[in-house]
Every structure is written in structure tokens, then in C-alpha cells.
Amino acid sequence: MTHGGRALQRERTRQALLREGRRLFAARGYGAVGLSEIVRAAGVTKGALYHHFEGKSDLFRAVLEQVQQEVARAVAAAADAQDDPWARLVAGCRAFLAAGADPEIQQIMLVDGPAVLGWSEWRALDEAASARHLAEALTALVEAGVIAPQPVPPLVHLLSGAMNEAALWLAGSAGPGDLADTQAALERMLEALRG
Amino acid sequence: MTHGGRALQRERTRQALLREGRRLFAARGYGAVGLSEIVRAAGVTKGALYHHFEGKSDLFRAVLEQVQQEVARAVAAAADAQDDPWARLVAGCRAFLAAGADPEIQQIMLVDGPAVLGWSEWRALDEAASARHLAEALTALVEAGVIAPQPVPPLVHLLSGAMNEAALWLAGSAGPGDLADTQAALERMLEALRG
DNA sequence: TCCTTCACATACCGTCGGTATGTGAGGGTA
DNA sequence: TACCCTCACATACCGACGGTATGTGAAGGA
After folding, report:
1. b/e map of A40-50 (b: 16 or more CB within 10 Å)?
2. Which residues contact A51 (CB under 8 A, 6 or more apart)?
């Protein structure tokens, strides 16, 4: 190669694989995309892919982690823009629904993620990325006495599941007012948790 | 073959494929099970499988439909045992959570289902089986004035998503009181929809 | 009895994920 | 600057898989 050192080129190749893998996985789903297609799009060969990742599912895992962290960052940013703990929760939920509207994120994070990595591993990644923020927000609200004292983990899964499905539904059969209606219904459910 | 007519034997073969396919898909996931394994377990060959189904994913679709209908039947039975519309909704939700506790049902219905068939087709099957009951129950409650007038579809997806995730979580990391806590939290959310 | 049909079994193919090995450009060392 | 080791890939190859094309023998009406 004409430019740069080994480390730079290495990083370029890795990023190209992640970028094209993400694009193809998102567009057509994990199962419908072959390794040969990914490496061709990235301008490398299978040797490069197996030099950087352990296999197809490991590449997908890296892509998923990237997607999860992007979503988590958006949610955290929306929450941090608010001061009131309750407003932080609502803003975070809204941001999650908005992020889930992206079909790329849906296919990778919600459709293929659990099936490719298995539910337990998917949950671990989700926990590390976004579910943790939700749990912290709810815990803060319980401690502050804003919502009734109750076990937080069930709430986390009920809410994140509700938002996952809602995001998926909204992107698929979106009527114009559905997003607003869904946010309204979600906030009504959140309201129910208050004392 | 020594016994029975062609139609009987045909049905026996089809049921054997469905039974073993369901068992293997549930135990190890769609991707990790090969056709050769299924037909060996069923005591037939690939020719038989392709005579009855269009391919691997079509067999899975048939298995999924079977699972969905079993769940829907259990939910409907629990709901029909109640007279009050509100009690019917709560009983149906409880029954769904109980049904989702089965790891077989989880893997097929919630993990592999969307990834193998695609989200839109999965939703169509879910709609035809169990989501329809939820929508009808909610519509009845709205019309009866038990819960506030509001668009029903967003509620359906928020609630079914919440219950799907909760069922998955309960089966995986089940603490002893988690089921009760989850049901309590869910019913608190349902309560929020009233008046 | 014959002959068609049907419910499979057998044999085969292309492609896929994965592996083993080759190779040539850095880049530190003397 | 000559050397050489390393590393970041490329090349060649393999077994297994999903899918297809074709063979076959029993069932059952005519």
C-alpha cells in the first residue's frame, strides 16, 4: 500500500468491513448476506475479514455494539438535556422511539440481534448500552419518591419491550399520527407509575 | 408401507416433520439445525420434507403457526373464563405471560420468528393469532367506557411488546418473585388506561 | 390386471462459512 | 542500505448445507 503505516491501514480495513457489513446487514438481513458480498463491498478478501474478526457472527456482533452505542448516546443526550428526573425519563423514552424509527437500527438491533447472538448475549449488550440508563432513571425516580416504591427490573423490561415493539411497528405501518399517539399512550403508562 | 391409506400416511409424515422440526428448532435455534437432522429424527428423507414444504423456512413457518395458535388458544381460554371485560383483559395478559414462560415457545415465537420470516410476516401471523384478541379486548373496553377513548393500535403494540420482552426476561433470569412483580407492574400500567 | 398417481427415496449440485497456507510490503536493526 | 522478521492481508481449498432433479414402488381406481 502506498500511504500510511500498518496501524492506519489496519484501522481503515476494519472500518470498511464494519461499514459495509452494517450497510448490508441492515438492508437485507444477516442471513441473506454472504461474506463474499461483504468483503467485495469493502474492497478486501475473506482473509482480511478473518484477520479482524472471528467469523460472520463476530462481525455482526461488532456492528451491533456500534449500533447499540449510537442509540444509547442519543438517548443519554436527550435525557441529559433535562434537569427534572421525570423529564429525563420521558425525554429518554422519546429519543429511543425516534432512534428506533431508523430501519437500519431495527433490522440489526431488534430483528437479527437476538436470533444471531442468542437472547442472553443480546440482553447483555442491551443492558450495557441502553437498558442500564433506563434502569438508572427509574431507580432515581423511585428513590426520589416520584414513582411508587417497587422492584425496578420488571419495569425496565416491560418498558423497553414496549418501546422496542412500538418502534418496530411505527417504522413498518406508520400512519401519520401514530407516533404521537404512541408517545401519548406510553407517557400515560409512565404516569401510572407515579404515587 | 404396511398400514393405512396414502392420506393417513401422508398426514403421519407431515406431523412427524412438524414435531421433530419444532423440537429441534426450539432446542437449538433455527440456524443451528440442519435439514438432514430434522429428516433423520422424523425417520424420513429430504425428499419427504420438500414434498410437504417449500423449504426449511416454510417448515419453520408451519411450526410457528402451530405455536402461535396454541398460545392464542390458551390466552383466549383464560379470557373467556371471565365475564367482566376488564377481568378478561387481565386474565388474558396473565395467560400470555404464563405461556411465554416456555422456552420452546420463546425461541420459536420471539427469537427466531422475526429473523427467519421477516418482521412484517411475523407481525401478520401474530396479528392473526394473538394480537387480534388483545385488540378486540381493548376496543371493547374503550367502547364500554372503561378505559379512556384513545387509538387502540398503539396500545396493542406497546402492551404486546411489553409482554413479549417480559416473558423472555422471566424465563431467562427468573428470580422467584419476578413473575409476580412483573404481573403487578403490568396491571398497574393497565390501570393507567382507565378513566 | 393394468396403469396412473402419489408419496416419498436417491443422487446430485452450487454456494456458503470457515480454514490452511502463501506473500509482499512495512519497518526496526546493524 | 542491506537484512530480515513481522504482520496484514490474499489465495486456495474444504466440508456441509439448502435446494433440485430424477428414480421407484406401493396404493387404488378402471
Report:
1. ebbebeeebbe
2. none
CA of A115 to C1' of C10 (A): 34
Q: Which three cell numbers stand for residue A89?
A: 425519563
Q: Is B177 on the interface with A (CB under 8 A)?
A: yes
| pTM for this prediction | 0.95
Given a contact cutoff of 8 angstroms between Cβ atoms, the answer to whether B92 and B186 are in contact is no
Q: Is B5 helix (H, G, I), strand (E, B) or coil?
A: coil
- Rounded to 5 degrees, φ, ψ at B147 are -115, 160
Contact state of B186 with A158 under an 8 Å Cβ cutoff? yes
Three-state SS at B43: coil
pLDDT band at B195 (very low <50, low <70, confident <90, very high): low
Q: Which residue of B has its CA nearest to A173?
A: B120
C-alpha grid cell, residue B67: 405455536
Query: Strand D nucleotides below 7 A of a protein CB?
Result: 7-12, 16-23, 26-28
DSSP conformation letters of A78-92: HHHT--SHHHHHHHH
Sign of the CA dihedral running B94, B99, B103, B105: negative
Residue B21, burial from CB neighbour count under 10 angstroms (0-12, 13-18, 19+): buried
- For B14-33, how does the pLDDT look when each residue is reduced to its tens digit (9 = 90+)? 999 999 999 999 999 999 99
Q: Can you give the pLDDT of all 195 residues of chain A as single tens digits?
A: 456 788 999 999 999 999 999 999 999 999 999 999 999 999 999 999 999 999 999 999 999 999 999 999 999 999 999 999 999 999 999 999 999 989 999 999 999 999 999 999 999 999 999 999 999 999 999 999 999 999 999 999 999 999 999 999 998 877 889 999 999 999 999 888 886
* Cβ-count burial A98-121 (b if 16+ within 10 Å, e if not): bbbebeebbbbbbbbbbbbbbbee
| Rounded Cα distance, B10 and B12, in Å | 5
The pLDDT, as a whole number, for residue B194 is 81
Hey, which residues 152-171 in chain A have their CB within 8 Å of chain B? Answer: 153-155, 157-166, 168-169
Instruction: Kindly state the cell numbers that stand for B145.
Output: 367506557
